[in-house]
Batch of 4 targets.
Target 1
Amino acid sequence: MQNKLFRHIGRATSDRAFLHYAEFFETLIAKILLVVIILITIYAVVDLAINLSQIVLTNQIGSLGKTLISIFGLFLNILIALELLENIAGYLRKHVFQVELVIVTAIIAVARKIVILDLEKTSGLDLIGLATAIIALTIGYYIIRISNQIRNS
């Protein structure tokens, strides 16, 4: 009886079984994140629609510039959510992270930051940080893109 218990524990804690449980857990978390991102995206689209309808219905003339920037920010939030959705769905399909998609998501996030940036309240150090992020992401994207083309050739 005791010997049988030890064999069962040994099988359950073997590397293969442990990795199976870890993969199951990763997949479960990815599915939960996918559902959460879908809900967030739906909420963001509804929020964008409400904001756009308020602008159209109230016909705010002269204040469209600042409002337009916030609308672009909401729009880019939705694009970021869609990219995250694609990242998670791609992980569930292939069980690997697609680095190119992650970098594109980061580029969209930096672009969003630039669009909604208030230059009156932004320090030079913040601008240098954004410029550095843009350069690093662009170089990273270029390297990944070239390596993918070479691998697929």
Target 2
Amino acid sequence: MKTKKIIADTMPQALKMVRQQLGDNAIIVNTRAINTGGIFGFFTKQKYEVTAYTMDKEEVVQEPPKKKIEPIEKQIDPIEEKLREEIIKPDEVEKQNSVFHKNPQKLYQLYSQPESVKENKEQQIQTEQRESVKEANAPQPPRTETVKLVQAPQKLESGAVENELLTEMKQMRKMMMTLLMGEKQGNNLPSGLLTHLSQLRKQGVTEEVIEYIVNSFIVNNLLKQNESVNDMSEDVIKKEILNIIEEILRKRICDSTNINETTRMINLIGPTGVGKTTSIAKLATEQILKQKRRVALITTDVYRIAAVEQLKMYAGILNVPIEVVHSANELDTVLRKLEHFDLIYMDTTGRNYKEVQYRESINGFINHSVNSENYLVLSLTTKYEDLELLLNEFTESPIKKLILTKFDETSSYGSILNIAYKYPYQLAYITNGQSVPEDITRIDPTLLARLLLGEEK
């Protein structure tokens, strides 16, 4: 039997040295953080010590045949997806460390091979975590240096195996965050990453989104088996951040130019002054000229004469009919009148939709028998906190898509990323000017990611 004590600057480095010197069959006996150097206890540097041993071939006890499992390559994708989805909470970090100090072999497995996982059973996981914390806080007996050889595993039921793997996966995820971010140990993130995070904050990106970006950045590089994020170049860091931002956006961007053939009505809802009427003119023009559809317009915004006149002007230019509806009761009659048209755009009254009565009043216009799509129109010049109030109110409504206006009137784009990360709405269009019909487009995730990191338009 060969025993080694490895000391390195980081835990990943120490575990890598264990693999190099003792091989993949090495068994971890103990791991701990130690302070080295310094004067009278000051200016010390934290390092990590790993004690491990390996047995000669004749010492290894053969395990009984195991149930056949899938090749490890097929298990990597779901594991990686699970790692990306789950975010560590800072106050859970130290609780999880005790799990690995009690069973350091699990920590070694973290860097040697992945494990397959199944669906989460939260209650069992929480119970095991509480037990881990309780045991960690209990008085510990004196440590002995006796090391047992590998024993044949006991036969476990299928469900128990899955639960054990799932629990271990949770612990691995949290330990990865602790080891690589190292906030509680005093380690620093690379300066290039900190620079980009500062820029994202200037753009109005919330701390919730920034935390996700940091965690994704670290997990991505751990899965690539990079030794340390601190060794990455500025260009590599920027590319990684851009990819993470683009991934968030792509999950929410939809192609609304190809409207379903069964859709007969498009309803635009939103506060006063966000650009609903101009947006309708742009969308209608696109459908008439590019998709060759027969289009009609409806407006319910009878409270603002200017809005009605503006839409009538666009209807005259496009040579399409327009109907003015004063109440929800009139809508069915108007829809029957326009039933031979391919697509109808309805401009609704701009109201303060933070008020319950106004939100309820709009339901009479958008809840009808005609197959329709509903768009919430919001201005990017509005503070994100105010956007949140509206988005929260409409989450349970039939409104599923967003049009974000006045992109050209702001230099702060963090709200778009915040919305894409937090809310289930699809990002359909942005408008970037008053010209009809050209100043409306889909969001370009690559362009927006670069703008968020400070590049010019």
Target 3
Amino acid sequence: MNPSSFYLIVILIAGLVLWRRTRAMYRPIKGSGIRILLPILFLLLPSVPLISNPKVHATVLEWVCALILGILLSIPLIRTTNYELRSDQHIYAVKNKSFIISFLIVLIIRFLLRDYLKWVDAETKAALFIIVALGYILPWRIISFIKFRQLYKNQIQDNENINFR
């Protein structure tokens, strides 16, 4: 895959993520919020063979650094992802332009790192970038799910209190 097609694919995926995220701000989150965790599953399934590839040659320090970088990149995403209970008694993602900016900054950092790490072979680079992605998607989605569930439980308790009165 040549670099221009790679960048095109990444830009299309990023555009899809941003489009879905901005659409989610106008639609209620249905159910118990399990769908918030689905991207973790979508990333874990293809990442296992990529990480366990015998052609991947990375030191423990490189794996740890990739994971720490991912966790650091998750912080702005976590801080800008919130949920609110609106007057129709449904839970929505809070409208937040800071999230879009944070997401784009994370994407730019990944592009810059990809260009900087030209000395690393393709399989190792792919595995390390999957670790970076897991490092920011896992904490971001898990904490987002926890934030949603707290609001969801409060909504259920409030509804029960209203029914008992």
Target 4
Amino acid sequence: MISNTGKLAGRTLFITGASRGIGKSIALKAAKDGANVVLAAVNEAVSKFGGIDIVVNNASAISLTPTLDTDMKRYDLMNNINTRGTFLVSKACIPFLKKSSNPHILNLSPPLSMKPKWFQSNLAYTLSKYGMSMCAMGMAEEFKNDGIAVNALWPKTAIHTAAIEMLTGGEGFNVSRKADIMADAAYVIFCKDSKSITGRFCIDETILREEGITDFTPYACNPEWKDKLMLDFFLDEEDFQSKSHTVFDPTKKPTQNSKDLNVIFSAIRANLSADLVRKTTAIYQFNITGDNPGTWFLDLKTGNGALEKGKPSQAADAILTMEANNFFDMFSGKLKPATAFMMGKLKIDGNLQVAMKLEKLMSSLKSKL
């Protein structure tokens, strides 16, 4: 882990969204170094501390919903906090950053990728996060001659936050790292000469490896799972294939044949019950692609439940689209829906939370396959 050196002592850091999670960890790391940490009111910060040296745009709103399920109030919230908020806070602070001897702006946003899979299931959220990334890219060039470093930072793996717990149905601890890794990576960036690092889309682990860190076990929430961490949203596993960047990818399995899927279907039918219907009350549609394409539906809303080929007679609450091998792994307990979704291996249309309810059924089938 990265030790504090005191290089930020006396410097003033303005950060948004620092009440919990990654923002709180970054703020505490800077404060431990002796920095003045400000959570609001730019002018008051300047009046009290004489200027601003570092800006962290961390505040973010998230709603992983497809276009037709995204109401405009939620769309506006994400864009106002993520894109507009980043632009506005940076704009307000830049006049003071120009007077700093080592000014930095750091946006907590992902590297830009134009792959459709990052847009198909949650377009509104992706637009808002990419807006933050484009602010970093544009401002880095715009204020390069002023010596202001503008970069983006994103985690390689899932970070144990409230958002991850929501996505994984409370099962995110084992597959996540602590927010400390993001705080350490941000600290490394802040300590660098602003003229030497700007316009970069930084990944936390990569930044720390550049500093000589090779043991990332202390950052794992559960050290026993350090080699089975979930790759974070917006990152492609093919970008992390070297031995030093091992990330568990449970979707990398040999393609299952139709007989395997029939085993899954039989196990699901054997576990249907009125009690399961009462606890779930939802209809699922599975669009299976790949070598054995087909459409199936699981009715957990009426009677004792049913699994049939084709589309349901009434609208499905959640439509899950995936390749056959991923379907097999999900229902045999080898792959969590949240993991598949975040890695772009599973497309969900409809109610995301309803889709995640399937995880308990999937876990119950594991011992029967």
